[in-house]
Amino acid sequence: MTLSGFEHVWFFLFLFVVLGLVGLYIVVQLARRKRMLRFANMELLESVAPKRPSRWRHLATILLVLSLVLFTIAMAGAHP
What we know:
Blueprint: H1 14-39, H2 42-48, H3 59-76
């Protein structure tokens, strides 16, 4: 299917918004990690925090991004 197969092709511009949100999430996660290491007492941090955070914490964000992409495609409206 090509872009010409959609009724409102300009709705695909919302994918740039989704990409911006993904980029912002990555920047926030990197800044969070830096900030945590800068102000944390490493001995205390090792005793209370897990060594590696679970990857499941990103599941909500992945599902949100997927739903926004699917919603954008639905708004573009494939025509027969």
